[in-house]
Each structure stands twice: as C-alpha cells, then as structure tokens.
Write the structure tokens for this entry.
Amino acid sequence: MKIAADRSRASMILGLAGGELAAVNSEIVGQAYANQDALAREILLESVDVLTPWLGNIVDLLDPDVIVIGGGVAAMLKPFYEEIRQRLPNWCVNPCASQIPLLMAHYGADAGIAGGAALCYGDRH
C-alpha cells in the first residue's frame, strides 16, 4: 500500500486517520483529495484505472443506455467521471461507449439503503 510505503507523502491521509494506517478508508482519502493531497489524487486515479476496464466489460456485456454509480465512493470519484468516460472506449468493443452518460446515483452514499427500503416497500404492495 502506497501509504505504508512512503509515510512522508501520506501525512494528510494519516493525519485524518489519527495516525493509524488501519483506520484509512475511502472517506478519508476523499477528504484528503478535497484538500489537494497529491497522494489521495494518485490513489483515486488508480481506482479509475481499475474501474474503467471493469465498466468496459459491463458496457460490452449489457449495452447500457446509462451508467449510474452509487454508494459512498460515487461522490468521491465524481471529479473523475469525465476521465472515465473518455477512457471507456479503450476498454470495450462497443462503438457507442463514448456516448454513454456516466451519472451519480440520486441517493449517493445512501443508494444501498434506499434500494433496500424500496425492496421492503415493494413487498408490502
């Protein structure tokens, strides 16, 4: 892990985590990125590097009209949505990949909770 390998670069991230490497989570990385932390940006770009090929597979498999990203990481990665959209055609064969909108789920970090509530509500009607 980059934070453990070079603690001098991770000072903001570790500071936000109370100096505990095990306490570092995506929210802390997002906070550090919001404060212009270079290592946090590097970590998020690596997330984009992993996410984009995965989304390319989804595009080839399902041919979606839109890609909606939800959960806590969705807001953190929002500044990188355009970069993901631009990279996507390099990771799939679908010729329409560059035209697929990439959106954040309406409920953001609460998307999973809202979905669970909708399932429960739907069972009653």
User: Anything to note?
Assistant: The chain has a mean pLDDT of 87.
